[in-house]
From TrEMBL, chains A, B:
Protein name: Growth arrest-specific protein 7
Swiss-Prot/TrEMBL GO biological process terms: clathrin coat assembly; clathrin-dependent endocytosis; neuron projection morphogenesis
Keyword Cell membrane: no
Database matches in SMART domains: FCH
Organism: Triplophysa rosa
Length: 344, 344
């Protein structure tokens, strides 16, 4: 505190500077006979900040970390003009993150559907009787080529199945429904502390006005005594002075209670925002892990897909027109005896 | 020829053995005073074969090759009972082979359609706005993951395009429409030679019957002379004998013409069946080559598909929750000044 409070003596009119915003007091500059007082603090929406030009630079609580606990003290205005506490911005980020998970899972679901369709089409074509009448080594190679489509279909079904269990499901179920409840708890807890701060601030303002009134009363009564304007006795002045002092004590107590409430809110803000920060790191890492799983499954799938060609390549290698001719001729020959000249 | 023909003297009744089939004569066994004649040849459908048990084994024209020219001399019966020349069987095989090509091309066409559908689905999903609001390094990785589906789609479209130009089209166009015309030419050519053989054979049979008649006439007239049954003179017998001899000459000439026609047919059979054999080898090798092209394209596709993941893997590697926090906090922070105690 830069302005001291003298319990017994004269006591400067504490100025409570604030910007033009609901629930704050208007700025005022007061100059006393003793010194020029510069306003060094400002209360905005019942939270008291240093005026940035006057104080030595505050050190960040967690320098170089861009930590949530360092950047969300003030309230902001949303496009509709409503006041949004910094902590609310952090909570919204968490809820949005949960929604992003869900949308990513939806995307994976769509991929799964595409894979299943592809597999179904390949499988169906694999059963086709087209060119089934081709025989011999060529017929075998062709049959295996057709069969390989079934193998490919299985690869893609396996892929889609693993996509579901290893990517989609985790993305959907990470944090579950409890998460929103947890966020609400944080929300309410911090809001309650802010509300307390608001009411303590109101008490301070009330005590401040009461003090001003008491001081005015004392001053009037003192002046009246001097010019013997009324029949006020010294007794009245003492009473006025006592009330003034009491009002001063009240103000001190209210300010003290206000500062306690603000400290409490401050502590909870630091703790909670760090927790949200941790949760966000966890979320990003979880998503990264599962998207890597997606690419791993894709790599695997392409490899398994390649291997469906091995038996086809082998059989194509073995295609032998001579062997096929032998097989066919053995089955379809009509006669080996060659014609001879007719005798007479 | 195992039975000799004596131009002037007695002349054995040439027997023309054949099986019970249209256009052939019935089997007969004749025994003369001089020797037992074993039937060593048989004419079936106007083609003359050795009787298999009597001749020394014929050597195959192309031993160990199962060549068409060795195995399709006889006609066969189809299930409806019609006679099908061996060469016809070979032609049918060629036409069937052309049909197999066509069916294989159809199969490839179906694969192309499946690939195009798959590519279309991937491409559409790639454009999805799901989780587009994710920002920072995680957002970049997610965006690349989505984009990779477009890359995959392109890989599959390229695959289907090459399937069309390098597999389907060659299979469809190999040999084209001229092939059927060429086969018809072979068909007609060989058929014409067979028809000629049939008519030459009919001439032989006619000449044979004429000879028998002449011989009978001579015999009767000779007998009549001996028993002085009629007033036939030596002159009549001489005439009869001359006619008999002429009939013998006619028969010889017919048999000779027949044998020439059979030789001509024989030569064409060998040449043409070897050509069909060559065409079949060419067909099998062409199909083998193009099916190998199919598997090559499949291998390529799986590899290109893998490479679509590289940028995704890289960006996932670079996901940095701290960096993302910095980016987000810079944009969304509400205020860095921390609250301080209110002064009185």
């Amino acid at each position: 505190m830069e302005e001291s409070f003298d319990a017994e003596g004269s006591f400067d009119d504490a100025s409570c500077l604030s910007s033009q915003s609901p629930g704050s007091t208007s700025p005022a500059r007061r100059q006393t006979k003793e010194q020029e007082i510069k306003e060094t603090k400002i209360t905005i929406n019942c939270v008291t900040f240093p005026v940035s030009t006057s104080t030595p630079e505050q050190q960040l609580l967690k320098p170089n970390e861009w930590s949530y606990c360092d950047y969300f003290w003030a309230d902001k205005r949303d496009p509709q003009g409503a006041t949004v506490p910094g902590f609310e911005v952090l909570l919204q980020k968490q809820l949005k993150g949960k929604h992003m998970q869900k949308e990513m899972a939806e995307f994976i679901r769509e991929r799964i559907k595409i894979e299943e369709e592809y597999a179904k089409n390949l499988s169906k074509l694999s059963q086709s009787p087209l060119a089934a009448q081709e025989e011999g080594t060529l017929g075998d190679a062709w049959a295996q080529l057709k069969k390989s489509l079934t193998d490919e279909a299985e690869v893609h079904l396996k892929f889609s199945s693993k996509l579901q269990s290893e990517v989609e499901k985790p993305l959907l179920t990470f944090r579950g429904d409890n998460f929103k409840k947890d966020m609400k708890k944080y929300d309410h807890h911090i809001s309650d502390l802010r509300k307390q701060l608001v009411s303590r601030y109101a008490a301070v303002e009330k005590a401040r006005r009461a003090l001003v009134d008491r001081q005015k009363d004392l001053e009037v009564k003192t002046q009246q005594l001097e010019i013997k304007l009324s029949n006020k006795t010294e007794e009245d002045i003492k009473k006025a002075r006592r009330k003034s002092t009491q009002a001063g004590d009240d103000l001190m107590r209210c300010v003290d209670l206000y500062n306690q409430a603000q400290s409490k809110w401050f502590e909870e803000m630091v703790t909670s925002s760090l927790e949200l920060e941790r949760l966000e790191v966890e979320r990003v890492e979880m998503i990264q892990q599962h998207l890597r799983q997606y690419t791993t499954l894709r790599h695997e799938t392409d490899m398994f897909n390649q291997s469906t060609l091995e038996p086809v390549d082998q059989l194509l290698q073995s295609v032998d027109p001579g062997k096929d001719r032998e097989l066919w001729v053995r089955e379809h020959k009509t006669g080996e005896l060659r014609p001879v000249d007719m005798d007479i």
